[in-house]
């Protein structure tokens, strides 16, 4: 009655659809109120440090509902295994039966997260991206650059990290994607020469400070997805011309917007939702001098969209 | 890196351990505060009516954490497919990696729920069970009777349901387990001749009324696991000498205790937890005239215990 798919065939299926397009559609449906997304389930582990998130929901009237589990155990790198893991489960909204288990080892979460970064940049980046700055030289930092290629012609990048070796590996790999990549161990260098910046770290302290940010910069912060992770000085959000959340409701308990609101730097009324920005061009940046911030905490609708697309692609290809 | 097990081998593994014993141990660990159980995740569907519950958690310092999904779609019976479904996922608490997926189609949830009924009866039933009453002739109603055989010698039962055909099928099947089973379409008949009663229905209206309950009766209510399901007149809880919850925290938002508290029939201080009753015999019924009620909403520790036991049994048998 159900199918179990593993990583190789899931990876292969990704070439059969436009992931940025389906994620964009997902954000629109979400902001239109068509998607039921209960609060994120969460477990936090201390020794070794790690977390597990359960994101789940459904588009009303759709055929499926989806439950996604993603784990992050940052010390796994020492063991030579991936820091992120997980799986996605697709169920029938008509019978409750499991339709398929996508044992993607967290890959689809990585991909849908990177695609959300591309969606945010597509609608919020300045018209002329001079250089792309990436904070975090891990899996997500690499994927962000890969998916940004679909939305900006800029092939110049700078990557910041805390480990020189990891930075070299990053530069080598992303050069193969056609990027000219400089590396740095000094985070302040990034906003000095980049006007499209993506933060993709598990940091618990701000990495970028408000007075480093030049006019005309867009920042997508995607690392923080809990109440205790933070990548941006709350004053960056205070001074931004626009603050965009993937989910306003999730931003009440996690991520940069939560932290900046807690710090009194911004108020709830200062935040608009990504799906609304996609639908209404008048909500985007008004000129190339504005500073914009997108805070992505990851929404179940992304998981719904990508797992449905993968499943339908796998089934229509008759791989089973 | 992970194993996927399906129903036949999972069913087979159940003979390798004592499920009532591990569920009992789980309740004790839970009431001792050793188990982290975040709030239950829930999705409610309207057309067709159904629900999905996500229960998850971990025993502190243990090797695993567990996420369980259970669905209930009561109109499935018309389609000839099981009304309950789901799966259990076991992850490493050290790396976040998926250890195994138990594609049990909801069977392990059914079993651990039935085992919890046996645990409640073991510690709360009157010393001489004259007849067992079961409300609900579905899967859970059958399993309750099956697992009660381990904790009481009584082989006389009465089953109530709303469909005569289903009742006949129930009687036929449970006679094979050695029970002498009478059937009834009148719920009031059950408390008139049974002093150990289990309610196992998805009812949204009370099925048993307070003035029907005789002294010396124990009732385990296991059907209600949402805020809107209810099987017992709140006055039954008000007049009971003991009200026991599997989880006091879950009883604040779902189940009979939630409903009776909402109705003002009982207060939070009137409720004790099953794990505490198991540990301390002085908390059990004082005599065979008392009325006791156990309200079981289903706790993730049951899922943790059964999925670990199944996995370890499957692995030690070298079935993979």
Q: What is the helix tally of chain A?
A: 11
C-alpha geometry of chain A:
globular
CATH class of the largest domain in chain A: Alpha Beta
Instruction: List the domain count of chain A as a whole number.
Output: 2
What is the oligomeric state here? homodimer
Strand content of chain A: 25-35%
**From the 3D coordinates, which CATH architecture of the largest domain in chain A would you assign?**
3-Layer(aba) Sandwich
Share of helical residues of chain A: 25-40%
Widest β-sheet, arrangement of strands of chain A:
10-9-8-11-12-15-13-14
Distance between the termini of chain A: 12 Å
- The secondary structure category of chain A is alpha/beta
| The CATH fourth-level homologous superfamily of the largest domain in chain A | NAD(P)-binding Rossmann-like Domain
CATH fold type of the largest domain in chain A: Rossmann fold
User: Strand tally of chain A, please?
Assistant: 15
Largest sheet of chain A: 8 strands, parallel
Radius of gyration of chain A: 19 Å
Biggest interface: A-B, 42 and 42 residues
Q: Residue-averaged pLDDT of chain A, rounded?
A: 95
Poorly predicted ranges of chain A (pLDDT <50, ≥5 residues)?
none
Question: What is the H/E order of chain A?
Answer: EHHEEEEHEEHEHEHEHEEHEHEHEH
